[in-house]
Design a protein that fits this description.
Layout lengths: L1 H16 L9 H13 L3 H10 L8 H31 L9 E3 L1 H7 L11 E5 L5 H10 L2 E3 L4 H10 L6 E3 L5 E5 L14 H5 L2 E2 L6 E2 L2 H13 L8 H17 L3 H12 L2 H15 L5 H10 L3 H15 L9 H18 L2 H19 L1
Parallel strand pairs: 1-7, 2-5
Antiparallel strand pairs: 1-2, 3-4, 4-5, 6-7
């Protein structure tokens, strides 16, 4: 079973690092690579890399069809997302907020980061000052965006405890908008104020939207991955971190020093530690020596460090689709429990889980 899991990781790492080597895979290995790349939402990225390496056209037709289809679909989602941003700007033009900061996939598109147009973008994420949320939500409601149907408990939970409003969806286009007032829930153990993120946001020429500063964008990607409520099959998020680090380090020789300083300023050393550690150990990301020295003081106690090294790779990489693994399921469940533990105080976690359990039982009946 371990050999099957290792083969999945090996195929993905090899394809990401050396796309030209994919042409030498046997048909069963190529089929497995396509299946697991789709599972971790990297199939469009793989197709673009293979095109750039002049390998795609030499692959069997069954592989070409699936890879090109994934690339076409991803780029269609990009066009839909850019149009949604245009419509949001139109809807808020009468009374725009002081700063509309795009995050994640939308930000990567606006910055034209490598392979940004190969990502499947599911929604639009915006960061706003909390005192502007009500005005923005009202304007979007007037222009056709509505909150999905939620129970009173869930609606209150979003607005009272989390870092965002309930998702908004336009009745025609069905594209989801997530309006954030911070990057972590109010109840999380780490909850840096949003003001520094907004103050350092960077304008995009010709656009009403801004993006997070380079260090903040990388830190947000790390926070999003290692403090989210689900790490299963999230290898793409780690690939994003590696891409961002390479993009910003190539553009600015002082980026790494700014990143270290910003992580310490915002108190985000722990997610930065995990992001750098696994970007290097799993995907071979390179960094200056002083960054590795900083990691020595950012990490958790050794038992937690050891345990995370066992759990994280098993969560991020997909399991073999033909050989389900109970051990991987257990690892992912442990990380799921961890995510709730660091995002909620015990009393709220107990209350929330009890409510969800009771509601689920009664709804099934």
């Amino acid at each position: 079973m371990n050999s099957q899991r290792a083969r999945v990781s090996e195929l993905l790492n090899q394809a990401l690092a050396k796309p030209g080597s994919v042409g030498a895979l046997s048909a069963p290995e190529l089929d497995l690579l396509i299946r697991v790349a789709r599972r971790v939402r990297l199939l469009g990225r793989l197709a673009a890399d293979l095109q750039a390496a002049n390998v795609l056209e030499d692959l069997p037709l069954f592989a070409q069809d699936q890879l090109l289809s994934a690339l076409v679909y991803a780029r269609a989602r990009v066009r839909i997302t850019l149009w949604e941003l245009d419509r949001i700007a139109w809807a808020l033009s009468a009374s725009p907020p002081a700063a509309m900061v795009t995050m994640k996939g939308c930000a990567y598109l606006l910055l034209d980061i490598k392979t940004a147009d190969t990502r499947f973008i599911a929604d639009v994420d915006l960061l706003l000052a909390e005192n502007e949320l009500e005005n923005v939500e009202q304007q979007l409601n007037e222009k056709g965006w509505r909150t999905r149907a939620l129970s009173p408990y869930d609606d209150n939970y979003y607005r009272r405890w989390t870092h965002e409003l309930p998702p908004l969806v336009h009745y025609e286009r069905q594209v989801e908008i997530d309006l954030h007032h911070n990057l972590l829930p109010r109840t999380a153990r780490l909850k840096p104020p949003a003001a520094p993120w907004l103050a350092s946001a960077v304008s995009i020429p010709g656009s009403p939207f801004k993006v997070l500063s380079p260090p903040d964008m990388v830190l947000h990607a790390m926070v999003h991955l290692f403090f989210s409520d689900e790490m299963a099959d999230k290898l793409r998020d780690l690939v994003d971190i590696v891409d961002l680090l390479a993009f910003f380090a190539d553009a600015d020789a002082d980026f790494w020093q700014a990143f270290v300083s910003r992580a310490e300023e915002l108190g985000l050393q722990r997610p930065a530690f995990y992001g750098i550690r696994y970007a290097k150990s799993l995907l071979g990301c390179e960094m200056p020596g002083f960054v590795e020295q900083a990691l020595e003081s950012w990490g958790p106690p050794m038992p937690i460090w050891w345990l995370m090294d066992k759990l994280v790779p098993r969560a991020l990489y997909p399991s073999h689709p033909d050989y389900p693994s109970k051990s991987i399921a257990i690892c992912r469940w442990l990380l799921f429990v961890r995510s709730h533990w660091i995002r909620m105080p015990p009393w709220l976690l107990a209350y929330h889980l009890t409510y969800k359990f009771v509601r689920t039982r009664f709804s099934r009946k």
